[in-house]
Amino acid sequence: MGDPHGVGIVGIGVISRAYLDTLASHPAVHIAAVADLDASRSAAAAATIAGSEALSVERLLAHPDVQTVLNLTIPAAHADISLGAIDAGKNVYVEKPLAVAFPDGQAIIERATAAGVRVGCAPDTVLGTGTQTARAAIDGGLIGRPMSATAVMVTPGHERWHPHPDFYYAPGGGPLLDMGPYYLSALIHLLGPVRAVVGAASRLRAERVIGSGPRAGEPIPVQVDTHVTGVLEHADGALSTITTSFDGVATTAAPIEVHGETGTIAVPDPNTFDGTVRLRALGGTEWEALEPRAGYAGAARGIGLLDLIRADRQRPPRAGGDVALHVLDTMTALLRSAAEGRRIELTTAVRRPAPVPFTSTEDWTT
To answer: 95, 64, 65: which is closest to 78 by C-alpha?
Structure first.
């Protein structure tokens, strides 16, 4: 791999710990700098990482040792930070979604292409053995021609556990923009790109109450729809239905099921990297658990950035900006369809990312 790849992290919030657990000690990466609006948080993080500095965002973007910016800011800041990094000549890997508004996502990809830098975007959970084993089974013909899929995410809302959940209920938040990227990215890996959508949405109540942390008991306004459902028309003719909700208690539905002419695949939670993939063959009476046969084994958040570092012209990043822009196009089209009451055709197209061959934990951590 040569010298470690220099990474600068902007945003030292809750999710940063998961990335640091993967990247801080990885031999292919050197975290050269960290930045946060709260200087005490960036200083505390830098103190735990050998050779890392706590800097302002501006100084981090200009740092000569930073080759890729890991953008872990809140969704509303994703576009500004990513565009700043691109303009500084840096690659970007951004937490999902790519941006809050589709034009901002387009600007990120267009500016990166013009600058000759790469864009990657979460979720990278789809690169683990769960989604990738399901994809290998589908591509291997175990369910025949795939015809349809269902994707279901139901929770009572993140304010029950998150100490500062305001952004989940502000413009750019809601269950689809927050959790939809996991399910839509998985469906694109499994069934390919989407060409059109029909959506519907609702809102259960006008405010939520924070359930934990120093602000417990504080009400916050709900400015977005909190239950979004829709139908996705995939380019190859398959139909997927998706439900994302902050208005339910629980569900017994599998996170994702893919139905084919000769079988059904039950896919584990796309918010996780692994899990059991199950197959029910036509005429069978039992579900069969499939052994992991593809994907990064034992993967964790940050594997998408490592995959981006190792990408080249022949094999683009699997958690790439092109997929993230297509996911953003799908989500914003679903919300627009819900508001306007009509079918909407997408403006983007994307190739299915390259599959991930089975890669042992030892192979990707060294």
So the answer is: 95
125-294+320-345: CATH number: 3.30.360.10
Q: In what order do the strands lie in the sheet with 119-121?
A: 53-54, 29-35, 5-10, 68-71, 91-94, 119-121
The CATH T-level fold of domain 5-121 is Rossmann fold (3.40.50)
- Selection from 290, 234, 296, 230 nearest residue 264 by Cα: 290
* 141 φ/ψ sector (left φ>0, alpha ψ -120 to 50, else beta): left
Q: Does 1 score more than 60 pLDDT?
A: no
User: In Å, what is the CA distance from 233 to each residue of 48, 192, 223, 254, 329?
Assistant: 47, 10, 28, 20, 13
- Residues 138-147 have pLDDT tens digits of 999 999 999 9
- For CATH 3.30.360.10, the residue range(s) in the chain are 125-294+320-345
Residue 349 in tokens: 């197209």
Q: Give the H or E element holding residue 116.
A: none
Query: Would you give the end-to-end CA distance of the chain in angstroms?
Result: 10
Q: How remote is the C-alpha of 325 from its chain's centroid?
A: 11
Answer yes or no: are the C-beta atoms of 302 and 93 closer than 8 Å: no
DSSP for 201-248 reads EE-S-SEEE--SSTTTT-EEE--S-SEEEEEEEETTS-EEEEEEESS-
What are the φ/ψ torsions at residue 161 (nearest 5 degrees)?
Answer: -125, -25
pTM tops 0.85, yes or no? yes
The shares of helix, strand and coil residues in the chain, as percent rounded to the nearest 5, are: 35, 25, 45
Output the pLDDT for position 2: 65
Q: Where do we find the tokens 């958690």?
A: 319
CA distance 141 to 356: 17
d(C-alpha 109, C-alpha 42), whole Å: 28
**55 Cβ contact list (under 8 Å, min separation 6):** 8, 33, 34, 35, 42, 63
Confidence of residue 301 (pLDDT cuts 50, 70, 90): very high
